[in-house]
Amino acid sequence: MANKSLDYITSLLQKGIRFDERSLEAYREPIVVERVISPRSSEGSARVKIAGTEVVAGVKLSVGEPYPDTPDEGSIVVNVELIPLASPEFETGPPDVAAVELSRVVDRAIRESGALDMKKLCVKSGEKIWMVFIDIYPLNDNGNLFDACALASIAALQDAKFPKYDAKTGIVDYSSSSNKGLPIVRLPISCTVLKVGQQYLVDPSFEEEQALDARLTIAVADGKICAMQKGGDGALTFEDIQKMVDIAFRSTELLRRKLE
Questions:
Q1: pLDDT digits (tens, 9 = 90+) for 34-57
Q2: CATH number, position 146
Q3: Omega within 30 of 0 (cis) for the link into 68
Q4: Total domain count for the chain?
Q5: pTM for the full predicted model
Q6: Is residue 238 part of a domain?
Q7: Is 134 a domain residue?
Q8: Other beta carbons less than 10 A from residue 215's beta carbon
């Protein structure tokens, strides 16, 4: 497929045909979710594979000071690093636009869904909170990093356990786990839908992503939309968005089953 021209791929998609013979709403297989892949260097970790796309995510926990406007709530920080190992399109150096967008999309889904009970991450109001750092590393980009990164981050949060913490000394013992998991309230699942011409498709390969007119990533939790992010230069009508949301609701059920 890598040898096929973009024009050829685009012409097929506009007819509702995919080069790998999938239906427009079909995800590539296998979809694999693995946890506890890096127990010595993180409090939680996961690997997600969607066919040839592979992503790992790690969760680190530390005790810090709360923000002034949320003195009794913990905090989360999401970072995506696009390394050359994953794609010749990626370069070393500061995060580029693609990495920043991926980080924001994953962060928004977790934050806006209320995935974590942030108040339960408070150690002492106004003084100490748990800070949750989610680091995501694509190992191979064969398309649809948005969904893979989102799924890996949630799986890593599920896997995470608090390290032992001495409230008197303020020392965190990372060598000992408390076996207490994070206060997860709900699980946001993201589905990215591409529009090519008048067609809508999910789980695009790398080559299909180059043909997009517009992209919409929809995060769903508890049967409700909790976040959306639009990409691509093309415009989306209200009817487009309705159709893409309907597709996302159907598709996130598949990803949720893989997660659970």
A1: 999 998 899 999 999 999 999 999
A2: 3.30.230.70
A3: no
A4: 1
A5: 0.94
A6: yes
A7: yes
A8: 20
